[in-house]
Amino acid sequence: xxxxxxxxxxxxxxxxxxxxxxxxxxIQAKRGIEVLTDFTANGSFASLADNVEYKSSGYxxxxxxxxxxxxxxxEGVWVxxxxxxxxxxxxxxxxxxxxxxxxxxxxxxxMPTVKYPATLAPNMYLLKTNRWIYERYFYWFLxxxxxxxxxxxxxxxxxxxxxxxxxxxxxxxxxxxxxxxxKVAAFLDYETARIDALVEQQQRxxxxxxxxxxxxxxxxxxxxxxxxxxxxxxxxxxxxxxxAHWEIKPLRYLGECQNGINIGAEAFGSGFPFVSYxxxxxxxxLPTNPKGLVQSSAQDREKYxxxxxxxxxxxxxxxxxxxxxxxxxxxxIPSATxxxxxxxxxxxxxxxxxxxxxxxxxxxxxxxxFVKEMEIVTRASxxxxxxxxxxxxTPPVEEQIRIAQYLDAKTQKNDSLLDQAHxxxxxxxxxxxALISVxxxxxxxxxxxxxxxxxxxxxxxxxxxxx
Length: 467
Fold this sequence. Notes:
Elements: E1 9-14, E2 17-21, E3 25-28, E4 33-37, H1 45-51, E5 60-63, H2 65-69, E6 77-79, H3 81-86, E7 91-92, E8 97-100, E9 108-110, E10 118-120, E11 124-129, H4 135-143, H5 145-154, E12 156-157, E13 161-162, H6 165-169, E14 172-175, H7 178-223, E15 231-233, E16 241-243, E17 247-250, E18 255-259, E19 268-275, H8 277-281, E20 292-294, H9 298-303, E21 311-314, E22 316-317, E23 326-328, E24 337-338, E25 342-347, H10 354-361, H11 364-373, E26 380-381, H12 384-389, E27 391-394, H13 397-440, H14 457-466
Parallel strand pairs: 5-10, 19-24
Antiparallel strand pairs: 1-2, 3-14, 4-11, 5-6, 7-10, 8-9, 8-11, 12-13, 15-16, 17-27, 18-25, 19-20, 21-23, 21-25, 22-26
Helix pairs in contact: 4-13, 7-13, 7-14
């Protein structure tokens, strides 16, 4: 896809934009902002605390950045009708430009039209523009490289990034005519929708590939590779039937469990290798060179050691979704210790092949068992008692090795397709960002652009993918 350039350009005289079309201007955002307000415009902190109570349901929804990130599809925070009226200065009706002012500065959304009353949450700005700037054009500029760079540099950083109102008013943007702003916005609405539809397809493909991967693994580690082998009832609901010659044993009879080290924050940053929660949560195979360092004693390094064949489990988190992930160690990590939020299972020798352990303990059905059985109070937690009573099918070690080799081949092909899908999403994101930036700065001339007649952007993207 190629677009013409404008006939003539001029220097913008701003570090954020090199050149703009000769007919365009360059202005500070304050010239085109009519309303710039936030949650605190409705009253003092004390008054807000007295008049606004957050609820799980109510008359009006409090619109937060996290809600917009998830397309308002998750459970929200609500206020009653009296509080909504009190918050009238930041009421939302649809179409308003919303910016993060604290934390995730750079996030920008257009408020969708919803069927319920809505009002602005804290840590956000609500913007409305005057006749100088078309709101949708301003939205796309803020998402451009030049817009994001200005926001990033303007934000003050203490505990977390913060953007004040003067920072917003001082943003510099190119200013085409009103008609051109509208055309640029329409062009980007259409073209980014096409890209977003392709991204969504790749995301669906990723989910399907992940599901297929889990199905293949679950079947192999619980049923084996021989479709004609005699089967027996395992006596375990989530396992079902297993090959008749396999043994089924609770984990407690296959090795020992050990919770990780608990040590003060002052001990971290130097010393000996330290395996963190993140090392386990993100990796089926434990990294051999963990990035963490800790000042551990010789006794600690003996008690909390990491050796080939060990399996580490995530044992506690805010949510059940992060519990029960495992990572298998394929070689000793000398002098290493591991975090207190982890449990180490060390099998007795010649019982479990490390590669079979990798696949069995990473089995999604096993995590579903953990989630079903664990007790949740304030934090989700996987205790040693639950882990030790988990039933583990143990084929002969030679068969474990064959199963793992089969899964290596199967998952390698699957993982290659996953890598391709992730790479495609990255390229589409880069293309989207580049398209926004060249359009809002006039590097391409879209004045003559018209949306193609026929299918919608999403339908067209589907057809493009099929081709």
